[in-house]
Every structure is written in C-alpha cells, then in structure tokens.
Design a protein that fits this description.
alpha+beta; 2 domains
Amino acid sequence: MTDTTTVDKLKDLKPGDMITAYKSGYHRVVRVEQREYLGGPIAPLIHYLTVLSSKFKPVKSKKEHRCDLFYCRKVTLESVRLEFQKKTQELTEGHGRLIQFLQEEGVDEV
C-alpha cells in the first residue's frame, strides 16, 4: 500500500537536496530515477552520495548509493532544529530521571 502523505512530501525531491536514507549519515541527492512496475508508476529510486557521517564528520567518498524513496527523509534547517530540540529534551528528561533514581537509591555524590 502506498503512503500518499510520504509521496506528496517527497515528490519534489531533486538533485542537490539533503536527505537521510537507509544508509546512516547525511546524503546529497544526485539523481531521482522514476520507475514503473506492471505499467504503473512506483516510488522512485533515489541515488545519493554520503556527505556527513551519522556523527557529523565529513565523508569524501564518491561512491553512489541508492534506495527507495520511502527510506528517505528530506533534511532542512527546520527539520534539524526540531530534531535538536527533541533530542535535547529527551536527554534532559532522561538525565533528570537518572538523577532522581540515584538520589532515591542513596547513591553518594562523589
């Protein structure tokens, strides 16, 4: 079954766009390959180069990877800001729970 919301959100994916994909890291789209199956269109195949590792380190490889559109997520300044806020909140809440647990258990400060 096709997820039309995902298709609609990514249908404008084009060369030069930044994405996350099945392979970890951050990638630049180099080509969008339209595909058909049994005479009808199916999700495009996205060709990309990895430009940053998942740890945000530059990657100099020129090896082209590819995956189905449904494994891709477009990376924008807004999406990065939202992800940062989400991860910061999760980390802050997690540390708060850990500190509370340690205090309840009577674990020493030192």
